[in-house]
Amino acid sequence: AQAIAQRQVTDDIAHELRAPLSRLRQTLEGGGAREAAIRELDAVLATFAALLRIARAESGALAAGFRALDLSALCRDMAETYGAVAEDAGKALDTRIADGITLQGDAALLRQAVANLLENAITHGGARITLALAPGPVVTVTDDGPGIPEGERAAVLRRFHRLDHSRTTPGTGLGLALVAAAASAHGGAVRMEDAAPGTRAVLELRGERNG
């Protein structure tokens, strides 16, 4: 089963990188603009960087470096950063963040996971987004956008899977896969729910310690 999974990942990578690398070659062969070549290289590098972060999270190697962290403070920091991003996009970010929630974990990985959920909601959601943190710990990001069809909610957590309406926006198709890997690395899971309207991403973690 592991060998089959590894082959699938390899096939996915080959499929997703073939197009940008082909465009890069055509740009260079045709004497195209330097800026266009740089954009294609940036896209390839972003894909590889995301895959490396996912691989590290899935390997279990990060657990040895877990440290006590203040998840409440982390979520507030992300809310401050992405509140400005949402405002620039003409949207509003609300928060419901409980105090004093801590756990053993990897701060950089969890910060990236929350960032990915917020970026996804701002990009594809409606006018209002909510970031919440409750005991468990459970992080939720809710938007009032078009939502995700029920049959797609598990699929969007896989590498390179993108909904039809999101294929015209920039992205690697790896953001939610990294969230799933981060959840697994912390003994939890992530799921996408119908928020009626919109989508609610529920990131459940383990190892809470009330500080």
What does this structure look like?
The structure is a single chain. The protein is α+β, with helices and mostly antiparallel strands and 211 residues long. The protein has helices at residues 2-29, 34-59, 71-88, 107-124, 175-185; strands spanning 67-70, 92-97, 101-105, 128-134, 138-143, 189-194, 199-204, 208-210. A five-stranded mixed β-sheet has the order 2-4-5-7-6, covered by helices on one side. Strands 1-3-8 form a three-stranded antiparallel β-sheet.
SSE map:
Elements (H helix, E strand, L loop, with lengths): L1 H28 L4 H26 L7 E4 H18 L3 E6 L3 E5 L1 H18 L3 E7 L3 E6 L31 H11 L3 E6 L4 E6 L3 E3 L1
Parallel strand pairs: 2-4
Antiparallel strand pairs: 1-3, 3-8, 4-5, 5-7, 6-7
Beta-strand share of residues: 15-25%
Q: How do the strands of the widest beta sheet line up side by side?
A: 2-4-5-7-6
| Backbone structural class | alpha+beta
Overall number of strands: 8
Could you give the order of the helices and strands? HHEHEEHEEHEEE
Radius of gyration: 18 Å
**Could you report the average pLDDT, rounded to the nearest whole number?**
76
For the biggest sheet, the summary is: 5 strands, mixed
Low-confidence parts, pLDDT < 50 over ≥5 residues?
1-6, 161-172, 207-211
Shape: globular
What's the number of helices?
A: 5
Percent helix: 40-55%
Q: Alpha-carbon distance between the termini?
A: 41 Å
